[in-house]
Structure formats: structure tokens, C-alpha cells
Amino acid sequence: MARVFLYDTTLRDGSQGEGVNFSLQDKLLLTRRLDELGVDFIEGGYPLSNPKDFEYFQAVKTLPLKHTQVCAFGMTRRKNSPAATDTGLKALLDAGTPVVTIVGKTWDFQVTEILGTTLEENLRMIADSVAHCQSQGRRVFYDAEHFFDGFRHNPDYALQTLRAAAQAGAEVVILCDTNGGTMPEQVAEAVKTVKESLDCAIGVHPHNDCELAVANALAAVRAGATQVQGTMNGIGERCGNVDLVSVIANLALKYNRDVLTDGSLQRLTETSRYVYELANMNFRNGQPFVGASAFAHKGGMHTHAVAKNPASYEHINPETVGNERRILVSELSGQSTILSKTTKYAVSHDKALMGKILTAVQDMEYAGYEFEAAEASFDLLVKKLAGLYEPRYARLNYRVNIEQSGSDAPVTEATVKLKVGEAVEHAVADGDGPVNALDGALRKALLPHYPRLAEMSLVDYKVRVVNSKEGTAARVRVIIESQDKTDIWGTVGVSENVIEASWLALSDAIEYKLFKDQETH
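The chain above was modelled as a monomer; its predicted structure follows.
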């Protein structure tokens, strides 16, 4: 099983994506996580570009990395100047990494119009830079920028640039689809030509501007490339880089290629989500292999078939990549979906109840509810319809007051009156907004009776207009995501009044926590 080497450039190319910014600590944490996953090479950054990248290369030397090799990235020497005194190459070597990656021009148009030099000088720049770094004991990878564009316009010169790098000591020449506009068959043809023309190893660095980066990476590997450069989750400039998550899964599971380290494939989902968290980005639910929806089933016919045999609507076992199967409850659900979601309540044998639950779900979704991201609210609905629901408290009333004077920020105060057992609790709390204030008042009233509520926190809050044609009188759906030490759960509320919709979702979240704690103790 031939190995394909993975080169991760999340810390450099990925950080060029809009809205992406890694701190020094983020970069070190991600380096350790990618090393644990079994990524072969991690590009730490461009040491001459900013102080953070310079500090990274000093700090990363102290990490006890087990598998990966850290690479420093830089450019060829400046035109018409010696490599030995070039400040960029000096910074590259001073980073002290075992591997350096040098990027140079491949497309004749870029050489003459952007770099502003001759084609001959560009070849010397490539050869001198590679040779100098190689003479200092570094492994050298050469990134052929705009290779595929250059190969289409002037294939002879594009190949000359690769030969200049290879003959000077480059271990791998990486063919970059910098503009992301190359088709898979063009990638395969070019890689095949390069393989026939050079003796060194070949890599590929696709961008995703045509939504073909993964296809292009796979085409390159099938044509002879043995290194793929990309980023976790495909983050990067413009439309992003090739998504290494999909590359890894496809190579390992579809082409039986050796990637990562033994047993690491099952950590792919958690690593993907870890990167999203570090980058402060929302998960992409529809992301292949690792997205929350990658193995989610909603239609009744699908869920019925999956219950019999998951292979009916799944191309792999989700656990292979560390993901999980999800059965979604919606108005499209059939009784088989309801059965699969209610087995834990020991009521799934009651067909009349199953029909009652299905009808309730369909009626509530017609009114604007949505249970796909609010399974905790669905659990409470089942308990109510099955006669298993015992409310832990009863709302007597609540009030939210917002005051704003002059240029001061608005002040929000919520008052909640509840009946808990035989006691009546009356609590007041301030908050940054009405939902925050309601949450504070509700907790204050309930904590004396249910102290484990202190473990719970709100993770996310979303509002969506259900019937926008009604304008400001439209019904709104509020979905709240909550978590404690062990679980994350979603709840939903719908009303023409956004405060009431928020209360319904918030109350469900707390009720679910209380039921959950009771069932686990």
C-alpha cells in the first residue's frame, strides 16, 4: 500500500482565509494535534513575514513531536542578487526546521510581468535558492507556483523551472494550481508529463476556486504524485485550499493508500472540529465525512432502510472517521424514524403512540417548529405524549423590562415567578439582553432546588423568521444550544413574540438538563 505524504499548510495558507487568525498558542496547539493525527509535514509559516511566525519557529522546537516534521516557507532569492546574502533565505534557514519549502515562479507571464525579470534569471533564482538551502543541510521542497497555468501556456518553460529545482537538489517538486482553475483531466495529464520528465518526487497543491480541489488532488495522486499539500477543512484565501480532511478519507478508504498513522483515521472528525474551534469558525454541517449532516437521515424511507442496513444509504461506516449516524425528526419522518428515536423510552411497541408522536411532530413543524437541531425538545415531547413527563417547575409569570436613556447602553432586567414543588420562587436578574436576563433569573430561582444547573451553560442562540410575509408580526423560531460537563443539546421555541419563543427554548433546555441528571443518578 503506497504511502501518500500529507503536507499541512493550515498555519500559513489557511490563515490567509478571510476571518481566519491564529494566535501563537493556537499554532502550537494545532501543531501538536496534527502531529498526533499523523500528518507528515506541517508548514509553520513564513519566518520573514511577521514576528508571530518567527516566534513560532523558536517555540515549536520545544514541542515533543513524534511524527511530523515542521517546514519553514519562503521565496526564491531576489533577482540579480546572490543567494548567500539574501535576507529571505537567511530567515528561512534561521528558522532551524529540517525542511524548507521554497516557492518560485513557473508561468512565464508571472516571471516577466509580475516578477519583472528574464526567464533565464528566474531559472537561476530557483536553482541558486534550492542549492543554497540544500547545502546547509536542509531537505528542500520546491513549490512551483502557478504551475498548471504555466504548463498550459508554455509547457517547455514550466518544465525547465522544475528541472532547475530538481537538479539543484529539491527532494520534491510541488505542482501548484494557484488560481484554482484547472480541471482534473488537465491535472492528470500534467502530472503524467512531469513524472516522465523528472526523477524526483512530485507533489500537488490545489486551490478550490472551481470546487475541484479534492478531485484534482486525487487525480494527481492517481497519476503519480506522492505528496498532497492542503489545509484542514479547506480553509484559505478566496475559495480555500484543498480540504485535507476529504483527501485523507478518500485516499485511505477509497484508494486504500497509506496515510496518517495507524488508528488515526477515527480521529479525523474531532480534529476537523478542533480546527474550526481554534479558527473561531462555525462547523460546516454538510462537510463530507466529518460534518454533522454527513450521516444524517431525515426522510422516512431512508431512515427505515438505514435501520435495516446502514449500507443502504451510507457509503462508509461513520465510526471509521470518528463521526456518528443521526436520525432526524421532521415532518418528512415516518413511523420507523419515530421508532428509532424512542427505543430508549420502552414505548416503541405502542403503535398508536408512535402515530400520535408523528402527528404532533408534523403539526408542530407546520407551525414553525424544527426538531433536527433540537432533539432535546423532541425528547421532552415524547415524554409528554407518553405520560412520562413530570414538570420540575411551573411558570407563574415573567416580565422583561428594557430601559435606555440618553447615549447609555440599554439596561435589561428580567423578573421570573415560578412554583417549584410547594415553594414559590421570585427572582430578578440583569442581563446583556432579554434572553440573558431571563436565563439569569430562571437559574436564580431554580438553583436552590437544583444545584447541578450551575454546570449548564448556553453555547449558541439562533433566531429565524418562519413566515416572513407577516413582517414584524411574523412568527419566529428560536433554537438554543446548551451544554454541561458531558453533553450538548438543542431546544426550540416558536412564537410571534421573540421573548416567548426564547423562553420556550430556554425552559426546554433547563427541563432537559433536569431530566438528564435524574436519569443518570
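The mean pLDDT is 89.
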